Amino acid sequence: MDPAKGSSPTVTQRDQWMVESQVYDIYHLFATIPPNAQSVMLELLRDRHMEFLIKGLTHLGSAFCVLDANRPWLCYWILHSIALLGESVDDEMETNAIDFLNRCQDPNGGYGGGPGQMPHLATTYAAINALITLGGEKSLASINRDKLSNFLRRMKQPSGGFRMHDEGEIDVRACYTAISVASVLNILDDELIQNVGDYIVSCQTYEGGIAGEPGSEAHGGYTYCGLATMILINKVNRLDLPRLLEWVVFRQGKECGFQGRTNKLVDGCYSFWQGGVVALLQKLCFVINKQMASPDSQEESLDGTSYDESCRSGQTDSSNSYPVDFNNIGYRFIKECGAEEHLFHSIALQQYILLCSQEQEGGLRDKPGKRRDFYHTCYCLSGLSLCQYSWSKYPDSPPLPKAVLGPYSNLLEPTHPLFNVVIERYYEAHEFFSKL
């Protein structure tokens, strides 16, 4: 409704106007100051971010007691942020982190939110990603893959979905965390994959995005989880990718950041959840074009050996004439060339992250007016990394200076868009687990 006509605005409208006003003030200030001052505003405050992150690994205040069941997540958010900054923790802190996560590992497989807590797929994903980020034989060898495989099978449902924990909810997030863990640990097989594609297809909405469960609203986090899962199980062609692309590109709003759902406020964390969807779609452009030219191609699935080549040659795995190496899909996907055209405004998103999400004292936040936290620090930096490498032919090749907003010293380490771990650490884990 138009406030100028005296109509009563909704709460959402008032919140939206307030955010737009706060962001406008920041952008207006930036546009009216001298170029040297602009450079200062666009600088990634690495040292302050590191100070904030290291402090979080050594001491957390009493307010964090509400996250008692999320301690592996805190480890992952902090350690991944440090890795994106190109830094690492000292030997003592690394040993303490490995030992703590090992105490979170359930005797029957999987990781709980803390020592003695029930195993949960979300904290299992966080713990595995944290251990991969730490890297090294001690960290990777601490994972009991056999017991973890049993846990994943116990969570698997006949519908193709997964439960988050014993008697827990079934949703797309559970599918992603289970499949991601299985893929990176080299234990993904036909049994775990069975019917997963059916479940995720049933969650794609009329808008094009993917909901958490059938009949719900499309959501950025679930869309990322659903799309990444379909790539990892070699069934991405079953999604309506043109409609998904249309949905996600319209989630980047006038503030330059992404919103998670239609008519919702911008949030820095969607720099990764929605930015990650776009990063994945940029590697699927030939598939998208094929679907647009021939909607019937949506019934096919890709040959996991080479996405680009399989699409161009028309090969599929539908005949089951040869096996698909599911555990190598994540590795091969990252090696494929991305699309030359850009599907979102990466420089604008970097501007939102650096000017609106970055705290001057260190750490990153949801939006102006919110407080910094480890979750938003992790996913804002992850989104920033994806933006910086979005122009690169390969995600682990150095980007051109024009792709990095602000000084080139802002450049972060590249993150794997399917797993959100630094690519170098992913390569190490892939080599380690492929030999077992």
List the helices and strands and how they pair.
Layout: H1 11-32, H2 35-41, H3 46-58, H4 71-84, H5 91-104, H6 121-134, H7 137-141, H8 145-155, H9 172-184, H10 190-193, H11 196-201, H12 220-232, H13 241-249, H14 270-282, H15 285-293, H16 307-313, H17 329-335, H18 346-357, H19 374-389, H20 423-434
**Main beta-sheet strand count, sense and barrel state:** none
What global shape is seen? globular
Give the CA-CA distance, first to last residue. 61 Å
List the helices and strands in order. Answer: HHHHHHHHHHHHHHHHHHHH
Specify the helix fraction band: 40-55%
Strand content: under 5%
Total helices: the number is 20
**What average pLDDT do the residues reach?**
92
Number of strands: 0
Low-confidence stretches: 301-322
Find the structural class using helix and strand composition. Answer: mainly alpha
State Rg: 21 Å
